[in-house]
Amino acid sequence: MFDLHEPETWVAIAFVIFVGLLIYLGVHKTLAKTLDARAERIKAELDEASRLKQEAVALVESYRRKKQEAEAEAEAIVANAKAEAERVEAEAKIRVEEFVARRTKMAETKIAQAEAQALGDVRAAAAEAAVSAAEKILGDTVKGQTAADLLAKGIEDVRAKLN
What we know:
Elements: H1 7-25, H2 27-141, H3 145-162
Helix pairs in contact: 2-3
């Protein structure tokens, strides 16, 4: 079975001696420690990657929530701005209507004053014409003190009635 002239036998003996020497020197322990350390390092890296992934997911969710809040706030601002614009527009419309009403009232008042002034001027002119006509007629028909008395009384009556 073991023929010392066969190279395979010497390879097998060398292999057994080599493995025995490795075991004697504790290479298997060093190799196991190295592999265990590498496994621990890989496990730590995987744990770190998992933690970072969870943080990233939480951060993305936080940004989504903030984005939704910002959009809601922007919509509220736009709604408030529209409401404010409508309020300002309604207020401006009321002010314009009040301004037009005041201007119309002022114009009507000025027209009424102008009419009253014109009517007063016409009455005064009519009174002056009536006085002049009465003076002329009475001056031509009635003479003396009676004419002067009648003229003064007539002028006073006309002025009292016209004013």
